[in-house]
Write a structure and sequence with these properties.
This protein is mainly beta and about 220 residues long. The protein folds into 2 domains: about 80 residues, Elongation Factor Tu (Ef-tu), domain 3; about 90 residues, Elongation Factor Tu (Ef-tu), domain 3 (Beta Barrel), CATH 2.40.30.20. It contains 3 helices and 14 strands. A 6-stranded antiparallel β-barrel has the order 1-2-5-4-3-6. It starts with 7 loop residues before the first strand and ends with a strand. The mean pLDDT is about 90.
Length: about 220
């Protein structure tokens, strides 16, 4: 489990195909402090397992392997040497949950459609809403983009917007994104379960009118 609060930007050192899978070696510093083989690490929002590492001061790196399922659903298949990536270690029990509950299980990818710049240095980014997660995106709800916990500012039929502060733009790869770039998208886990329950028929929504004419939406099993 993760929080979507990026700890540092690592750099992809090497990319090696293993059959239909891929082995990635990433240079890092902060996340190496308690690294171990078998540790979970989120790379651009994808939960992966450390298979090898070297934490020496002058040359610290770790390796992970991505299976075909991961490569098909995420941007990891397009990674190249020298590329910067967002890194986060698994959350520790008892620590502050600064973002929201992030599983590191990427649903799909989303395309950046528009960048609006503001005088305070912040940006409003418009992303295309992937069809298979349309019901999982709600205004003021949470989404994870490339491993970054963000709040949805607005939602339209085919897109959604997030407002990003200068600090987040500086410490993550989001500040380097251009229109047309693809990012890894993970819906909020609560929205995912609610949508899944509604689709499966395990949950229904009853709309009851109150005396004043207003309507309450009541969920029932």
């Amino acid at each position: 489990m993760f929080t979507g609060i990026v700890e540092e930007m690592g750099v992809v050192r090497s990319v090696r195909d293993i059959g239909n899978g891929r082995c990635l070696m990433v240079e890092a510093e902060v996340v190496m402090s308690d690294m171990a083989v078998g540790s979970s690490i989120a790379i651009d929002g994808c939960c992966l397992t450390v298979t090898e590492f070297d934490s020496t001061d002058d040359d610290s790196w770790f390796s992970v392997e991505a299976v075909p399922e991961t490569l098909n659903r995420t941007t990891l298949g397009e990674f190249s040497c020298g590329q910067k990536v967002n890194l986060e270690r698994a959350v520790q029990v008892g620590s502050r949950l600064g973002g929201h509950i992030v599983q590191g299980h990427v649903d799909t990818v989303s395309e950046l459609e528009l960048i609006s710049e503001y005088l305070d240095g912040s940006r409003r980014l418009t992303f295309k809403s992937p069809e298979d997660v349309l019901g999982h995106i709600v205004e003021k709800g949470s989404v994870t983009l490339d491993g970054i916990s963000l709040t949805v500012a607005s939602v339209s039929k085919n897109s959604f917007e997030v407002a990003v502060i200068p600090h987040t733009l500086f410490i993550t790869t989001l500040g380097q994104r251009d229109v047309g770039d693809l990012v890894n998208f993970e819906a909020d886990v609560l929205a995912r379960y609610v949508a899944g329950s509604l689709i499966s028929g395990h949950m229904t929504v009853d709309r009851t009118k109150r005396p004043g004419g207003e309507t309450d939406a009541v969920c029932s099993d």
